[in-house]
Amino acid sequence: MKVAKRDVPTFLDWEILFLHGTLLGQQAHREEPSVISSRPMRESEYPAYLDYFITDYATEISANYGLSRHEAVAQANREIANDLPLGVNTPGEVMLCVIDQASEIEFVVGYLWYRPDPAKRFVFIKDFYIFAEHQGKGFGKRALNTLEANLSQTGFEQIRLRVAEDNKRAKHVYETAGFRVTGINMSKSIKTEC
Question: 17 and 180 in contact (C-beta within 8 Å)?
Fold first, then answer.
């Protein structure tokens, strides 16, 4: 999705404060947490991602722009087609599956989509979702810590994202992972005269 298209009155802009060692060191106080990793999303997994994303994004569009469910789904489909024309193989976009490696069996527990800007040394998270049945177990924070560790090893200095003002669970995850508010986006609908 293009960030400008998702700007709504209740979105906050966040960026990470890199506190290397501090965030990662906090994991050591837990009793043997699952190892969280990520891997590139497979083409065979992309349809399931779209099923989740279109439904979730259409709900957001409908709530924030007052569109009917049908119109919101159509808009969400148009935007994802524009933003990811080649699906998981779209250049400049990174589509990952978040993996819980609690055992020898790989469990996908969520999705992470971001766009890196190597010249400016930051990435922008476009979508991050831990499946409902895995929320509240620390997977989100650990996935963000893993992303931070991986990015810091490749020269990136900042992670940015947007979160809906009313998404208290996501805001909590980001805050505990070291993100801070950097701005508030606002918009106003106007009546056209044509």
Answer: yes
Question: pTM for the complete prediction?
Answer: 0.79
Distances (CA, A) of 165 to 18, 62, 139, 184: 23, 16, 21, 9
Strand, coil or helix: 120: coil
Kindly report, residue by residue over 59-115, the tens digit of the pLDDT. Answer: 988 988 889 999 999 999 999 999 999 999 999 999 999 999 877 788 999 999 999
* Cβ atoms within 10 Å, residue 46: 16
**Which of 91, 98, 147, 89 has its CA nearest to residue 122?**
147
Give the DSSP letter of residue 158: E
Q: Is 29 exposed, middle or buried (0-12, 13-18, 19+ CB in 10 A)?
A: exposed
Amino acid identity, position 107: F
**Lateral strand order in the sheet of 36-40:** 36-40, 94-100, 107-117, 122-130, 158-164, 11-16, 179-184
Q: E strand or H helix at 179, and its extent?
A: strand 179-184
Q: For residues 159 and 122, what is the distance between their CA atoms, to the nearest angstrom? A: 6
